[in-house]
Specification:
The chain is α+β, with helices and mostly antiparallel strands. 28% of the residues lie in helices and 23% in strands. The chain contains 3 helices and 4 strands, in the order E-H-E-E-H-E-H.
């Protein structure tokens, strides 16, 4: 599952149900992620970037995107590879 988000700041809006889902489903299976958050970050006056996070990063993401470690940044081939190799 990939959750798609768009933001113009360092934060993304998530409902309590979305947070719960990513908290419960954020575990790794055989060392691989199974749920993701794909963020299109387009700050005003700054370059746009696309970042892929694993669900297990949800607590850091809630603190701010700069606090979470993305799995991939602006690399569609790597994003596709990570998502297609998920179990």
């Amino acid at each position: 599952m990939v959750e798609l988000k768009h933001t113009t700041s360092n934060k993304i809006k998530l409902s309590c149900f979305q947070i719960l889902f990513h908290s419960v489903r954020g575990d790794l299976i055989n060392g691989k992620h199974r749920n993701f958050i794909l963020v299109n970050q387009a700050p005003k006056g700054a370059p746009r970037s696309v970042k892929l996070y694993g669900s297990n990063s949800i607590q850091d993401i809630l603190k701010g995107l700069d606090k979470a470690e993305p799995l991939a940044v602006d690399d569609w081939q790597l994003i596709e590879k990570i998502i297609s190799n998920a179990t």
